[in-house]
Design goal:
The complex is a heterodimer of chains A (about 100) and B (about 475). With about 100 residues, chain A is mainly α. Chain A has 4 helices and no strands. Chain B folds into 2 domains: about 190 residues, no CATH class; about 170 residues, Rossmann fold, CATH 3.40.50.1220. The chains are: A mainly alpha (about 100), B alpha/beta (about 475).
Chain lengths: ~100, ~475
């Protein structure tokens, strides 16, 4: 990929991010922030490649930490977002109404 | 075998292309309540595809390190993410986001220590991504500590901004040395990252707890940017696209949040306001008038319209279930019950909606500020539960107040105002609440969960 093409990708991706979020209702701000937090967990792929090419012990230690942290970002981001969006399952008018006292956490 | 190598490369590129598409579609679906739940599944599928295909990367080694690292990080995050309470979500987002920033910085560190000699441009991008990632890592850790209650003080001193600027300048200067191959010694690289980490800590320490959501959102955008930059270094299209999309989406989200709090981003980052017990207290006349739960129960039972204003106090007391139970009793009696959500109720925009949804409150009973504000005039009771600044009328009237101009819920317009509150302290901003002193306001002191149970008994007793 040449530098110029990379620059075009950068510009188009930046506009895409802006457009995707532009009309989001306030109730989804927190879940969406969590969701975008999950998406940058793709850093895992880069951390794997970096550790995969590491040679010296120092590089290996840092690379190991990188993969560990990135895996935490990806998995944690997914679990937390999924739990939050779980609340929106019964969206729209057919919302569930649980019996008093029957709620669990 | 060039043919096999070529096909692996092709499979990887094709998979990353699919992943980038799934991420964008996933985020798009997450921005509407109807499709939100499927959005995370789409994005998750994209992540799975990209991670699996990366094992086929040409020339990869160290699998004996990669797999345990993934396992440890993944399992710890899974375990913590599953068991955290909904009220503590904001700090968990901060934590996972910081990990992503740290990972981006780690990639930069490996590339720079190795001196992969791929050119000035690539090295500059690695340095930039490394600094941003390290700042996000350290800053998010501080943000987590503050929201989790591990760090309670906001450390401020004169010339703090100047010091932070100097640290940034020093980090950038080292970055130029490293990227320009003037001094690419490991010591210079180490110094670069140490300075960036210190900067992240120093930048975040003076910011008060109330502003943390905006700061977390900003660091989320920064981590995205760092990931995108490291994507250029590794020539990885999936990272470039996903990182950049999050970088720009996160920036917009940060602006939306700051706007909802009537603050500019610069104000949040550099003013040091937004802390407990700091700001001046305005002049308030009148007295606080307490009331018993039994009297409130009668008042609620015979009201025709009740508007509930939940705040973070309700969430910390885990009272949303009890309050909803109370509201169901009232609805069964024919009372018109509505929930009024301020844009920054809870710890983040939308946080309160998540908490109410968890308790099973239907969406059609929940209204946002613009929808509900005209209706307070016709409400018999405004029930304020653990909310404070978002109903403080001085935001409309007192120009000297730090919260002047912030849109508030007009709870003071209701015929009766009942405030459920743990104690007599001021709100998150440290400002006295004029609403509590109004003639039509009564204070019901106690833990929101306990008070909720008492109110349920009181309403039942009315029969």
């Amino acid at each position: 990929m040449t530098g110029m093409v990379a620059l075009y990708i950068f510009m188009l991706a930046a506009f895409t991010g802006y457009e995707v979020i532009a009309r989001v209702p306030v109730i989804l701000h927190t879940p969406l922030m969590s969701g975008s937090n999950f998406v940058h967990g793709i850093v895992l792929v880069g951390a794997m490649v970096a550790l995969g090419a590491a040679h010296t012990p120092l590089e290996k230690i840092i690379g190991f930490l990188g993969v560990l942290l990135a895996a935490g970002n990806a998995v944690g981001g997914y679990v937390v977002t999924e739990r939050m969006l779980e609340m929106f399952k019964a969206s729209g008018q057919g919302a569930k109404r649980r019996a008093p006292g029957a709620e669990t956490h | 075998m060039p043919a096999a190598w070529l096909s692996a490369e092709l499979a990887i590129q094709a998979s990353y292309f699919v992943t980038a598409g799934l991420f964008i579609l996933g985020l798009k679906r997450m921005s509407s309540p109807v499709t939100a739940r499927s959005g995370i599944l789409w994005a998750g599928a994209g992540m799975l595809v990209a991670t699996l295909i990366t094992f086929l990367y040409p020339g990869m080694s160290n699998y004996e390190l990669i797999l345990p690292a993934m396992l440890v990080g993944g399992v710890l995050a899974w375990w913590s993410g599953k068991r955290v309470a909904m009220t503590n979500m904001p700090q968990m987002i901060a934590l996972y986001n910081g990990m992503g920033g740290g990972a981006a910085a780690a990639i930069a560190a490996v590339e720079l220590y190795r001196g992969a000699a791929s050119g000035y441009v690539t090295d500059s991008l690695a340095v930039a991504g490394g600094i941003i990632g390290a700042v996000s890592f350290a800053g998010s850790a501080i943000a987590f500590g503050k929201l989790q209650g591990l760090i309670t003080r906001s450390i401020r001193f004169g010339g703090q901004q100047l010091l932070n600027l100097l640290i940034l300048a020093a980090a950038l200067a080292l970055g130029v040395l490293v990227a320009g191959r003037i001094d690419a010694a490991p010591a210079a690289v180490t110094g670069l990252f140490v300075l960036a980490l210190v900067l992240g800590v120093a930048m975040t320490l003076p910011i008060g707890g109330a502003d943390m959501p905006v700061v977390i959102s900003l660091y989320n955008a920064l981590t995205g940017l760092a990931v995108g930059l490291e994507g250029f270094v590794l020539n990885n299209a999936a990272m470039i696209i996903a990182g950049t999309v999050v970088g720009s989406a996160g920036t917009l989200l940060t602006q939306l949040m700051a706007k909802a709090m009537n603050r500019s981003l610069g104000n949040v980052l550099f003013s040091g306001f937004g802390d407990t017990g700091g700001a001046a207290t305005g002049e308030v006349s009148g007295s606080l008038k307490p009331i018993e739960a039994a009297d409130v129960g009668v008042m609620l039972a015979f009201a025709s319209k009740v508007i509930v204003v939940p705040g973070y106090g309700m969430a910390v007391a885990q009272a949303q279930h009890k309050i909803w139970e109370l509201c169901q009793l009232l609805i069964d009696r024919g009372v018109n019950v509505r929930f009024a959500i301020h844009p920054v109720a809870g710890r983040m925009p939308g946080h309160m909606n998540v908490l109410l949804a968890e308790a099973g409150v239907p969406y059609d009973l929940i209204s946002d500020l613009e929808e509900i504000n005209a209706e307070f005039d016709t409400a018999d009771v405004a029930l304020i539960i653990g909310a404070n600044d978002v109903v403080n009328p001085v935001a409309r009237t007192d120009k000297s107040s730090p919260i002047y101009g912030m849109p508030i819920l007009n709870a003071d317009k209701a015929k009766n105002v009942i405030v459920i509150k743990r104690g007599k302290g001021a709100g998150f901003s440290g400002i006295e609440n004029a609403l509590f002193y109004l003639d039509n306001t009564r204070m019901l002191y106690g833990d929101a969960q306990k008070v909720g149970a008492e109110l349920i008994q009181a309403v039942k007793a009315v029969g």
